[in-house]
Each structure stands twice: as C-alpha cells, then as structure tokens.
Write a structure and sequence with these properties.
Chain A: It comes from Lophiotrema nucula. Chain A: It holds the Pfam family UPF0203. Chain A: One of its GO terms (cellular component) is cytosol. The complex is a heterodimer of chains A (81) and B (274). Chain A is an all-alpha fold and 81 residues long. Chain A has one domain. Chain A is built from three helices and no strands. Chain A is globular and about 40 Å long. In chain B, strands 1-9-6-5-4-3-2 form a seven-stranded antiparallel sheet. Chain B has a two-stranded antiparallel ribbon with strand order 7-8. Chain B is an alpha+beta fold. Chain B has one domain: Alpha-D-Glucose-1,6-Bisphosphate, Chain A, domain 4 (2-Layer Sandwich), CATH 3.30.530. The longest helix of chain B has 54 residues. Classes of the chains: A mainly alpha (81), B alpha+beta (274). Chains A and B meet through helix 1, helix 2 and helix 3 of A and helix 1, strand 2, strand 3, strand 4 and strand 5 of B.
Chain lengths: 81, 274
C-alpha cells in the first residue's frame, strides 16, 4: 500500500485502503454496490489526515484548487457517450 | 498561451482491472519519486453507480534547470536549487455501468509559473453486438457486464482478450508576468499614463516569449514522463494478472521500500522521471 503523507495516519489509512480495495474489487466492479461500506473507516482516516493537512497548511491550498475546479469538473467529468 | 500534449493507447486488459490498477499505481518501480498518496474525499452514488475520488500525491520533484535559468531568484525563494516537493491533486470518476473512468491531475503549487493539468479518459470499447443491443434495449441493459476480476480463490484477472482504450492529454499554461501586466493595464485604465517604475525582471522582456519558453520546457517534460506513467500501469496490471491483488500488494510493499531508500526510479528512456 502507498504511504500516507502523515506517518501518524499510516495505520488507519492502511485499514481503510484494505477495506476499499476489497469493496471496490468484490462489490463495486461487479455492480453489486448499494452503499460505500468503508465510509466509517474513511471517517477515521479523514479525521487523522485533516489534522495533518492543517498543520502543514495544505488544507487551504486544496480547497482553493477544488473550488477552482468546480467549473472545470462540470465540463470534463461527464460521460462522452 | 497554452500548450497541449495528447496521446491514445490501448491496454490489453479489461476495463475493471485497469480502473483498479489506476488506484493502485503508486508505488511502482517507475514511480519511486512518489512519496505518498492519500485519499482526501470519496463519494459513491448508488443511483448512477459512479464513484468519485479525490487524492493527494506528494512527489519528489526538481524544477528543470532550463526553467531555473529563466526565473529570477526572488521568485524562486527558498528552493533556489530547484529541489522541491510537489503536491498533486487528482480527481477521478468511475462509472462501472457505462464503462468509463475520467481522471484529472494538477499541481497545487507553482501554478503561477506553470500549471500542468493531466487528463485521462479510460473507455471500455463498445462491441458490435452491444451496439446492436443498444438500439433495441437502450443503453442500460447493453452496458451491463460482469466484473471480470475474481478475488475469491485465485484472485486473478481473467484473460478475456478484452482491452481498454485510454486517451491522455496534458495542458500546460504559464502565467508568469501576467500579474504585472494586469497591474499595468489596471493603472492605465484608471487614467494613470505613467509607467510603473519597478518592472524589475520583466522590464526587458515581453512576457509572451517567457511564458511560451516555460510551457515548451514543461511540454518536453510531459512527453518524456508519459511513457513511464504507462510502464508503471503495465507493471501493476501484470502483477494483477500473475498473482491477483495479493501480488500487487506484495509488489507495492517492495516498491515502498525503494521509495524509503530514496532509490532511483526505473526509466523508460534514460531521463529523470517526473
């Protein structure tokens, strides 16, 4: 598994990534998904990570970039057929 | 001014496997400059069966020396040697029902000097039979297929002879000098005909050629790194075919040790990997 930006989040990230890979390959790709089963684990991971992003001052950079992208997304993130 | 690079390719693997490899592509032997990958947002829409993911990658990077020569020291600040780490924000949407995945990656810093946006469109090819079915049954029924990846016992990608098409584009845009130009335009519009005294670095240059040079250097770099990105995906897909998810994860573990050791990436063309 890939490493987290924040070493203190590695453990919870690994737990989430493992859950996601299982859900993605065994449920989502087989078109059997009804909910994101790993959402609770993601919340834990997110909690750890958002702290780390804040301490490093990256959170603002990300939210600015994501705001800039909203219009782009509408244009590019859509099916072409 | 904008520069643009585009290429198309076909992976000899089924669409679901390619989407999985995309999520698992770091670390791989061609990407030991990628230090970390975090998922910062993920949303599954049960109605459309679309999965949206936002990830943050941290890459070890070096500004090309050609760019360093073009830029004033004051603009470079602390990283005057060009050694830097670069955050990359990646967004992807997978639609397993319709058989497409769209991705977009962009740099978070240095966007004033050069903003690089890389987009990829993965498509499950539409077969003749599907086209005909579509006419009679509508898209939904025709697009429905199996997952093709069995992680239960063997956990291997079945060799179904299926392929996935990918179109990659890289858009490069330099904004160097634009702020100064805007300021001048603003002061002129305000009736202030006097030229600003401190035009500094850009005094002797019109910004157009400078932007263009920086974009050209970025373009050259994008062309050089594209083959490595593809090789990285192929390594992950081969591991998946050979030994399933277990083999991919084992490979990642070894590649991660390489990253920690600060090891050099494999290179497809003998140049630095970016």
């Amino acid at each position: 598994m890939s490493a987290s930006l924040a070493p203190e989040c590695n453990e919870v990230k690994e737990r989430y990534d493992t859950c996601f890979l299982k859900w993605y390959s065994e449920t989502y790709l087989k078109q059997k998904a009804t909910t994101d089963e790993c959402a609770p684990l993601f919340k834990q991971y997110e909690k750890c990570l958002s702290m780390a992003l804040k301490t490093r001052g990256i959170d603002k950079m990300i939210s600015e970039a994501r705001d800039d992208n909203r219009e782009n997304d509408a244009e590019h993130m859509r099916p072409k057929r | 001014m904008v520069k643009f690079y585009s290429s198309t390719d076909t992976y000899p693997y089924p669409f679901p496997a390619v989407t999985l490899a995309y999520f698992l592509r770091y670390p791989n032997p061609y990407s030991t400059h990628v230090l970390s990958t975090d998922t910062i947002a993920r949303h599954y829409d049960p109605d459309t069966q679309r999965l949206t993911t936002v990830r943050l990658h941290l890459k070890r990077s070096k500004l090309p020396s050609a760019v360093l020569k073009l830029l004033p020291k004051s603009l470079l600040g602390a990283s005057a040697s060009g050694d830097t780490q670069a955050y990359i924000l990646e967004k992807s949407v997978v639609d397993i029902k319709e058989g497409w995945m769209d991705t977009e990656s962009r740099n978070l810093e240095w966007t004033g000097v050069l903003s690089v946006v890389e987009r990829q469109e993965f498509r499950r090819p539409v077969t003749q039979a599907e086209e005909e079915l579509k006419m009679w049954q509508g898209m939904e029924g025709a697009a429905r297929r199996h997952g093709f990846i069995n992680f239960g016992s063997g956990a291997k990608v079945e060799d179904t002879g299926e392929t996935t098409e990918v179109k990659s584009t890289v858009t490069l845009h330099s904004h160097v000098g634009e702020r100064w130009k805007q300021r001048r335009a603003a002061s002129q519009a305000a009736g202030d005909e006097e030229q600003p005294q401190k035009v500094g670095f850009f005094k002797s240059l019109t910004t157009g050629p400078l932007q263009s040079s920086i974009e050209s250097i970025g373009l050259k770099r994008a062309r050089r790194s594209q083959p490595n990105a593809k090789e990285g995906m192929k390594v992950v897909l081969e591991r998946m075919r050979e030994g399933g998810l277990v083999a991919v994860l084992e490979g990642m573990r070894k590649d991660r040790e390489l990253v920690l050791a600060g090891g050099k990436s494999l290179k497809a063309d003998g140049h630095d990997v970016e």
